[in-house]
Amino acid sequence: MTDYCVYIMSSRRNGTLYIGVTNDPVRRVHEHRLGVADGFTRRYGVKWLVWFESTPDVRSAIQRERTMKHWSRAWKIALIERDNSNWDDLYERITH
Fold it and tell me: What is the pLDDT of residue 1?
């Protein structure tokens, strides 16, 4: 069974935020970090994984991503700070 990951990336503490969904978070975050794809994260230097959650249901993951993209910036920051108050890069946590 595949898990799906909803995640938030940031350019720095309180920096530019990006929300995405993937079934392979290690690969996808690695791509963001390397800037291999043209687009938002490459343009704004968004490379830190600062928040994520997993679900086995793809529809739930996609709906969560869509909902979060409509949240205010303050709500997104509050979510990050609730679980990751130091804005640590969590990439190492998902690779192990």
Answer: 65
91: its two tokens: 């990439």
AA identity, residue 45? G
Domains of the chain and any CATH numbers: 4-95 (3.40.1440.10)
Q: What is the pLDDT of residues 14-72, one digit of tens each?
A: 999 999 999 999 999 999 999 997 899 999 999 999 999 999 999 999 999 999 999 99
Cβ contact 19:67 at 8 Å: no
75 is written with which tokens?
A: 């709500």
Long-range contacts of 12-21 (CB under 8 A, 24+ apart): 12/48, 12/87, 13/87, 14/77, 14/87, 15/46, 16/44, 16/45, 16/46, 17/46, 17/73, 17/76, 17/77, 18/44, 18/46, 19/65, 19/68, 19/69, 19/76, 20/65, 21/61, 21/62, 21/64, 21/65
CA distance 44 to 6: 20
